[in-house]
Write a structure and sequence with these properties.
There is one protein chain. The protein is built from 10 helices and 10 strands. The strands form 2 sheets. Strands 3-4-5-6-7-8-9-10 form an 8-stranded parallel β-sheet. A two-stranded antiparallel sheet has the order 1-2. It has one domain (about 5-250): NADP-dependent oxidoreductase domain (TIM Barrel). Helix content is about 40%, strand content about 15%. α1 (about 25-35) runs parallel beside α2 (about 50-60) and α7 crosses α8 (about 205-215). The chain has helices at about 25-35, 50-60, 80-90, 110-120, 135-145, 160-170, 190-200, 205-215, 225-235, 245-250; strands at about 5, 10-15, 15-20, 40-45, 70-75, 95-100, 125-130, 150-155, 175-180, 220. It is of the alpha/beta class. It binds NADPH dihydro-nicotinamide-adenine-dinucleotide phosphate (NDP). The site of NADPH dihydro-nicotinamide-adenine-dinucleotide phosphate has 26 residues, from α9.
Length: about 260
């Protein structure tokens, strides 16, 4: 596994495993498989309702806790301290590696202060945002004692967040790509430009997309419930895309929102 250093000095794996839409009853099995494959970053959220499954898998894996990086996300701006404690209990851990505000909820600066306190008390090691853009993002950055380590946003080859990535770079905030395959929407897995590049490297379109993010300094957290795909999505560390192939994929960008959420 390769790691990226966050703006607080903490190391985070450059590739993770996302568990959105995996029912809690299936999550333990999936996360155990992902850990077996080699994933060491697990991305969950209070809203997903599967933190307990993640915690069960980590416990059952026998892998030392400090070798696994857990990200979770706040589902509300009410009772934030209690929500953090609930996540710790469900994840069955003493600390959360990275805690994000899941989306702009209002009173975000007040939530941020409680998250900063959770860092000071050791319950959380790094804090960040998700789906924060424009003034909502600026408001946190301008007033933060601890700058956001990560902003997790919709990011795939059709939405490359070109100008926003530069803004994030100013505070060394890592862009983390949710839906790195756009959940397969808009024919991403069969895109002809990506498919042509994939055939020259003897790789799949999924692997080309993930390698593209890796080489752009972006952390991706693909989800799959199938072990063969977990393996496929993990097998991206043995090749590098040439500059003209990077450029060809960059040109696919349309800054196109595939979900209509943010
Ligand atoms: P992805 O872009 O990761 O796509 C997942 C879909 O692609 C699933 O249907 C999966 O099917 C399929 N798939 C995965 N690998 C392959 C492959 N190699 N070949 C073909 N199909 C494949 O979408 P997600 O929405 O799941 O995003 C990833 C993660 O990002 C989430 O799990 C979550 O952790 C996070 N996220 C965060 C959000 C936020 O607001 N912060 C919003 C949405 C996601 P199958 O499972 O059947 O293999």
């Amino acid at each position: 596994m390769e790691y990226i250093t966050l703006n607080n000095g903490i190391k985070m794996p450059v590739l993770g495993y996302g568990v959105y839409q995996i029912p809690n009853t299936q999550t333990k099995e999936c996360v155990l498989e992902a850990l077996e494959v080699g994933y060491r970053l697990i991305d969950t959220a209070q809203y997903y309702g599967n933190e307990r499954g993640v915690g069960d898998a980590i416990k059952a894996s026998g892998i030392p806790r400090d070798e696994i990086f857990i990200t979770t996300k706040l589902k509300s701006n009410h009772n934030v301290e209690r929500l953090i404690n609930q996540s710790l209990s469900d994840l069955q851990t003493d600390y959360i590696d990275l805690l994000l505000i899941h989306w702009v909820m209002g009173n975000d600066l007040a939530t941020w202060r409680i998250m900063e306190n959770a860092v000071h008390s050791g319950k959380v090691h790094a804090i960040g945002l998700s789906n924060f853009y424009g003034s909502a993002y600026d408001n946190i950055v301008k007033n933060a004692e601890i700058l956001p380590a990560v902003n997790q946003i919709e990011h795939h080859v059709l939405r490359q967040n070109k100008s926003f990535h530069k803004i994030l770079d100013k505070t060394e905030t890592i862009l983390e790509a949710w839906a790195p395959f756009g959940e397969g929407k808009a024919g991403l897995f069969t895109n002809p430009v990506i498919a042509k590049i994939a055939s020259t490297y003897g790789k799949t379109t999924a692997q080309i997309m993930l390698c593209f993010y890796l080489q752009s300094g972006i952390v991706a957290i693909p989800k799959s419930i199938h072990k063969a795909r977990m393996i496929e999505n993990f097998d991206i560390f043995d090749f590098k895309l040439a500059e003209d192939d990077m450029k060809a994929i960059e040109e696919l960008n349309q800054e196109r929102d595939l979900f209509g959420w943010y």
